Amino acid sequence: MMEEKAISVTQISNYFKQIFDAEELLQNISVFGEVSDFSISRNVAYFSLKDENALLPCVCFDGACLSSVRNGDMVIVRGTPRYYVKGGRLNFNVNKITPYGLGNLFEQFLKLKQALEEEGLFNKEHKKIIDPKNIKRIGVVTSETGAVIQDIINITKRRNPNVDIVLYPVKVQGVMAELDIVKGIKFFSNYDNVDVIIVARGGGSLEDLKPFNTEVVARAVYSCNKPIVSAVGHETDFTIIDFVADLRAPTPSAAAELVTENLISKKNSIHDKIIRLIRAIENMLYKYNTKFIHDIKNLIRLSESFLNEREYLLSLKQAKLTKLNPNEIMKLGYAKVSKGDNVIISANDSSIGDELEITFIDGNIKVIRR
């Protein structure tokens, strides 16, 4: 059996390149379409040019001249298709770009936005209040895969571990994705245990965000019984749902922060207040303790002064009493004369022949008055 004849990847890739390079009809041609996935890196612009049925990757090595280009713009680009062997990729190398008018998707966006705004769906009086202190459970309408739901879970649990998250998984782009999103919103609208709803997806082109620019999603948000936070795309992306929702978050991560109370910050604040209170009490106790010690010392001094004064007065009274003590008087040569139970203080108090008793300091004698 003969071995099948084959060529290498490099050979066939070089063959493709030669075909594009040799085809004169493909040199410096103009193509029109809608800009999507536009980005600039190191002065090189990368974007896609698309219509309803096809998409053409483009690159422009003079990105500065495309600084005014935005996703959704309808443009005419002039350049040449190039096949890159190493990457196995076909790019349209752009050397000139001119406006062709607004792209269909962006035009539809503006028309729907104007119609809904005139109808009053964006009015502030219809917005529901969102108080993070009262939110115990969050309903999330987004894809069950990818970074969005994980970011929401991580940030919510980090800020407040007590908050529950319920996911309603939906398609966030592609055909009929808007109907999936509407089902998720209606589900949570009648779900009693959900306090707020986050409708979220990551960034993308205008085409990627198309489901969130549909009338059915806008009306579902407007009619929802629960407050809704829109968190669609990057900070610079705006969709119809942003204007109808009760609150717009620049990113899904920001939405999680907006609807959850930061318990860690609250605990730190309480801790700081407790520390300040303890210090205030310590300062007050030190102040009053110092005053108490001062008052005690003053009280002791006053007490000592009072006791010294009383002791002096007592000594004076004691001296006075000592002087009045009959025994002390008798020591001076005085005696007590009595007749029975009566003290004789005058010669007229007794008669001749009366028996008198004379009391000396060291004893008594009895005498008869003559």
Report on this model:
The protein has helices spanning about 10-20, 105-120, 145-160, 175-190, 215-225, 240-245, 250-260, 265-325, 325-330, and strands at about 30-40, 45-50, 55-60, 75-85, 90-100, 135-140, 165-170, 195-200, 230, 245-250, 335-340, 340-345, 355-360, 365-370. It has about 375 residues and is an alpha/beta fold. It folds into four domains: about 10-100, Nucleic acid-binding proteins (OB fold (Dihydrolipoamide Acetyltransferase, E2P), Beta Barrel), CATH 2.40.50.140; about 105-120 and about 135-260, Rossmann fold (3-Layer(aba) Sandwich), CATH 3.40.50.10550; about 265-315; about 325-370, no CATH class. The strands form three sheets. It has a five-stranded mixed barrel. Strands 7-6-8-9-10 form a five-stranded parallel sheet, sandwiched between helices. Helix 6 links the parallel strand 9 (about 230) and strand 10 (about 245-250). The protein is rod-shaped, with a radius of gyration of 53 Å.
Primary descriptors:
370 residues, alpha/beta, OB fold (Dihydrolipoamide Acetyltransferase, E2P), Rossmann fold, 4 domains, 5-stranded mixed beta barrel, 5-stranded parallel sheet, rod-shaped
Would you kindly provide a brief summary of this structure?
Helices cover 39% and strands 26% of the residues.
SSE inventory with pairings:
Blueprint: H1 9-22, E1 29-41, E2 44-50, E3 55-60, E4 73-84, E5 89-102, H2 104-119, E6 137-142, H3 147-159, E7 164-169, H4 177-189, E8 196-201, H5 215-223, E9 228-232, H6 240-244, E10 247-248, H7 252-258, H8 263-324, H9 326-330, E11 336-339, E12 342-343, E13 355-360, E14 363-368
Parallel strand pairs: 3-5, 6-7, 6-8, 8-9, 9-10
Antiparallel strand pairs: 1-2, 1-4, 2-3, 4-5, 11-12, 11-13, 13-14
Helix pairs in contact: 3-7, 4-5
